[in-house]
Amino acid sequence: MKTILVVDDEENIRDLATMYLQKEGFAVITAVDGEEGLEAARLKKPDLVVLDVMMPRMDGLDVCRALRRESDVPVLMLTARSDDIDRIVGLELGADDYMGKPFNPRELTARVKAILRRAEGGNTRERGSVSVGGLTVDWQRREVVVDGESVTLRNKEFELLRALAEHEGIVLSREQLLEQVWGYDYFGETRTVDVHVNQVRRKLGDSAVQIQTVRGVGYKLVDTAS
User: Fold this and answer.
1) Alpha carbon 209 to chain centroid distance?
2) Is 212 left (phi over 0), alpha (psi -120 to 50) or beta?
3) Is 214 strand, coil or helix?
4) Residue 112 contacts residue 50 (beta carbons within 8 Å)
5) pLDDT per residue as tens digits for the range 95-118
6) What's the pTM value of the predicted model, to 2 decimals?
């Protein structure tokens, strides 16, 4: 049984998330603020953290930042703010997913399942690797090498680069990348793809292998030296 930690200062949110997650067979633990949530994550070692952004004592962004210094536990962030700031910052800090409040609890459980499936490598593709120019993506070792140098990517960044490398030179739409990397319909949140692409681009640096934007369509991986 997988354990989910729900960290939110609103009791009704905690109760709603707990009810629906338990119906899907998850064990659920809760915390009422950021400091309590961080302590629970350290002590209980949950399989996934549902983390509100705006909380007393320690906000969700600081909790996510602290968690990422210590572990790769998947994080699904919640925020009631209508702008993109929390979402973008959260994803850049290493959150795996994002949902706005109010949310559909069935969507919450769907996203939790998808994140866990991806974190476990729960796909049916054969193990192996693919190379594009000076880039090698090895999903058996979970390693990325660019021009002979190892590059560290977070889980979603790795899966995004893997999907693009497996389709070298082929344009993948944001919706296709959402489905392949996140494993389900992401309800139109294509901004998530843009944030992760920018992170991967930064880590690839000046390599000849680059992710190119095809305006109005999506992205493709190309070897500009060929």
Assistant:
1) 23
2) beta
3) strand
4) yes
5) 888 888 888 898 899 889 878 877
6) 0.64
CATH of the domain at 139: 1.10.10.10
Assess whether 114 and 184 both reside in one domain: no
Q: Is the peptide bond before 46 cis (omega within 30 degrees of 0)?
A: no
Query: Token match 């992205």: residue?
Result: 219
Contact 171, 185 (CB under 8 A): no
Q: Which two tokens mark 25?
A: 């067979």
Q: Grade residue 123 by pLDDT with cuts at 50, 70 and 90.
A: very low
Among 100, 119, 138, the domain boundary falls at 119
Query: By the 8 A CB rule, do 223 and 208 touch?
Result: yes
Quick one: three-class SS letters along 144-206? Answer: EEECCEEECCCHHHHHHHHHHHHCCCCCEEHHHHHHHHHCCCCCCCCHHHHHHHHHHHHHHCC
> Among residues 165, 166, 191, which one has the least CA distance to residue 178?
191
